[in-house]
Amino acid sequence: MKKTTAALLLLALAATAAPIPQQEIIEAALYGKTNTIEKALAEGYKPDTRDPENRTALMYAAFNGQTNIVKMLIAAGADVNAQEKSGSTALMFASRGPYAETVRLLLDHGAKIDTIDSNEHWTALMWAAAEGQANVVKLLLRHKANTTLKDVDGDTAESFAAKNGHAEVVKILQTAATPKPNPANGKK
Predict the structure, then answer these.
(1) Which pLDDT score is estimated for 19?
(2) What is the pTM of this model?
(3) Less crowded by CB within 10 Å, the N or C end of the chain?
(4) Under a CB-based contact definition with an 8 Å cutoff, are residues 73 and 43 in contact?
(5) Could you tell me which residues come within 8 angstroms of residue 123 by beta carbon, excluding any fewer than 6 positions away?
(6) Helix (H, G, I), strand (E, B), or coil: what is residue 150?
(7) Angle of CA points 135, 115, 93, to nearest 5°
(8) Distance between CA 43 and CA 33 in Å, rounded?
(9) Positive or negative CA dihedral for 160, 121, 125, 183?
(10) pLDDT tens column, 95-136
(11) DSSP structure string for 68-83
(12) Distance between start and end Cα atoms, the chain
């Protein structure tokens, strides 16, 4: 009888345990603490819950290239196109770093490639180019990122790469912008 009472008491305590605080979930997403995210999701955490900056756990995970956390949050229904206060998305956050795997995962799950933030009118491609992330730039270009979009100052992804001394990225963007000959139109 005592074992049954103890088991019931433990179940009651577990049921009344406080949920994991939002700040702890954000830190878990940012630093790849999968156990905390798994527990939060099991306890009913809504993956599109926002912090004061209107950011989601997915955005924080993407910012640090935490691909496993991104997978978990997407599987739990996170909106890959959610925007924070300045209009940035998880794809924009991931594109700032050397996180091609995270970028690919977001794109494979419907992230809009040419979303423009509401602050400076930057895109994921502009972020990747400005930060010199050549592999991310190549990946975004393979997914048809628009190289001609301009920010509020008239700068493009290529000009950001050039201003920041990323010659390899400049060359990649120039090559992508060069029209390809169409053999069907070249018949004589």
Answers:
(1) 83
(2) 0.86
(3) C
(4) no
(5) 92, 113, 114, 115, 116, 117, 145, 146, 149, 157
(6) coil
(7) 50
(8) 16
(9) negative
(10) 999 999 999 999 999 999 999 999 999 999 999 999 999 999
(11) HHHHHHHHTT--TT--
(12) 94
